[in-house]
Design brief:
Helix content: 40-55%
Oligomer: single chain
Strand order of the largest sheet: 4-5-3-6
């Protein structure tokens, strides 16, 4: 693989590839008004977009901002549909084939064939190996303070220059990273852009390389801005934490959250929705509280005759799939038995006991 992306921008800029990007961008959104409007004149719209990119006259549209409240309140920024096509094209043609392969093996967020469950399995595997080879150990668990909001786009652009020498591609990268709408003092990247999750990963790949290459830490796992290090002693945790803090401040202008701390491995570690031990995994307390709250709400709606059974079963099945990746069989049984709407004569939707053996593959 070449060290930098060279002379690829115009090779990849074809109608066929933009059409493919459109098909990916429209997935699960085919009935939205802006998608329908774009497709009414699809060929001309794609040709115009291709010409703008080729001539260097492409400009990012105006963001639409809205809030989400799960898992916590966040401002989400969404671009017009044509810009989302450009993001799809940019990520699939340049980021994934040229930059993602340079990531370390133990980073898991927003990457194909990885994800939260693989990250959890990796952390537990590392804990088991560490325990077997070295005995008792300590866990250093860290996360970044308001990560997306504090990414410096100018630092990010300089990082991207390490991977890109193609002038046209670098010009587009600059437009995507340093959006003029953000103003000259812009800090942070928009949550909601398809590019943002990859830019964030590229940003913290600098930390990954520092931990692995400079600090020589063998047992390290990262899922976006949450990361776990396994170390032999408390003193080593204190030392490594300080080195990481200094690196982040000096090189990336971000800092650790106050919740970052270290503790003996026997306490387990909260990571990606689970509490992980060397011998087993449990659901986090917040997940238990949430499903109990939801079941209470669902039961009330069911008793009132206002329950949307299809959507409710989808939500319940999602939680069951998540909880099936840890030691939770009895908890699953208890939650199911608390649902008024499952074992009744009024619905043809129900859960069979044998499906509890493999909730991740269950279909309700």
């Amino acid at each position: 693989m070449p060290k930098k992306i060279k002379k690829e921008f115009y090779k990849k800029l074809t109608f066929e590839k933009l059409l493919q990007a459109h098909k990916r961008a429209r997935k699960h959104k085919a009935y939205k008004n802006e998608v329908i409007k774009f497709e009414m004149n699809l060929e001309n719209n794609l040709i115009n977009l291709m010409n703008e990119l080729r001539n260097g006259t492409y400009h990012i549209g105006k963001y639409f901002t809205f809030k989400v409240y799960e898992p916590k309140e966040r401002d989400i920024k969404a671009l017009p549909y044509r810009d989302r096509i450009v993001h799809q094209w940019y990520v699939e043609e340049f980021i994934k084939p040229y930059i993602v392969p340079r990531f370390i093996n133990t980073t898991f967020a927003c990457l194909e064939n990885k994800g939260t469950h693989h990250a959890v399995e990796e952390v537990q595997h590392q804990m088991q190996v560490f325990k077997r080879n070295y005995g008792d150990f300590w866990i250093l668990k860290c996360d970044i303070k308001k990560f997306f909001y504090n990414i410096n786009p100018y630092i990010l652009l300089n990082i991207m220059k390490k991977y890109i020498s193609d002038k046209a591609l670098l010009s587009l990268t600059k437009a995507l990273v340093i959006n003029p709408a953000g103003g000259p003092s812009q800090v942070g990247i928009p949550i909601g852009n398809y590019t943002s999750q990859f830019f964030a990963n590229i940003y913290l790949n600098e930390l990954d390389q520092f931990v692995k290459r400079t600090l020589k830490i063998k047992f390290y796992t990262r899922y976006m801005d949450d990361f776990i290090l396994l170390l032999k002693t408390k003193e080593e945790c204190i030392k490594v934490k300080k080195l990481i803090e200094d690196f982040l401040k000096k090189n990336l202008e971000i800092e650790l959250n106050d919740k970052s701390r270290y503790y003996p491995y026997k306490m387990g570690v909260n990571f990606c929705g689970y509490r992980i031990f060397t011998t087993h995994r449990l659901l986090r307390l917040s997940s238990k509280k949430k499903i109990k709250k939801n079941i209470k709400k669902w039961n009330k709606s069911y008793d009132n005759g206002t329950l949307d059974l299809y959507l409710t079963m989808q939500s319940l099945n999602s939680w069951l799939g998540h909880s099936s990746h840890c030691n939770s069989y009895k908890l699953q049984q208890k939650m199911i038995n608390n649902c008024h709407f499952i074992y009744t004569n009024n619905t043809d939707l129900h859960i069979e006991n044998n499906l509890l053996q493999d909730m991740s593959d269950a279909v309700f």
